[in-house]
Amino acid sequence: MTWWAIKRIPYGKMAIFVISTLPMSLHLIASYSYDSQIIAFVMMFVAQVLYMREKDGFVTIKDIVICTAFAMLVAPSKLVYLPVILLVFIIPKEKFNFSSKKVFLIKTGIVFVSFIFLLLLQIKGFESSATSTELWWANEPTRSLSWVLKNPIETLKIYVRTLFVRGEFYFNTLVGSHLGWFQISIPTYAYIPFYFFIIYAFMARDNEICHINFANKLWIFILSILSVVLIFSSLFLAWTPISYDTIEGVQGRYFIPLLIVAFLIIRNKFVTVNHNADKYAVFAVIYWNLFVGIQYFVTSFV
Length: 302
Description:
302 residues, mainly alpha, two-stranded antiparallel ribbon, 13 helices, 65% helix, 4% strand, globular
């Protein structure tokens, strides 16, 4: 699925490659985690949206069907990534051989169909999150949605406090500072270079045309923030005891799918890299992953 996304996406191929080869991403795939398929679904959906946005000629019915199918895969995988589907609205109406009204209905229809598919598969999840539940590991109930609505200021304080207290943990575990059930520790000097790989991968190439304008970037940023809020909210309502003043259960790996969207915000026409360097960067990422694996065995068994 990653191969298909790299082939389909008109630009950002290196971004897809680096995200899919982060130590955390490889760990998720190797452990049969369902998060790996979520990452892949988001990759394919974003690739299809950008393909439709940048393709020569008009968007076809086949393109719309493929986009809808991927949206239907993303939506029920995890509710927190539902805002990503609204990326369809960055496809210019000029790419459709229809009237403006019909184009809006098509885009809205993609979102609507995926949302209905989500409701059909996740209706029990919505019911459980609306009420307080007893946590087996804490012997305490969680906060309910009604509690949040009655205490918006306190809820906001908990969100902000969590971000400041756990921010470094999210930053480190995003790429893979701790794997497994956090019992596999990777040395700092081994995983930090992946952030440099990410920065490099997110930059535009000197042979690419950057068509993402400020309005589109602002829309993408809003969708990303909304998805982050949903990630915090889901664990706040489902996994955080009522006596806790920070949100429990949030991990850096939950933000990996959002990296696939974030590269569109960062790339610009003012800072570019030589596209010929990508072949060297690919080998650098591969060899550094081997180095990370060696470091784990050295620090754990020697």
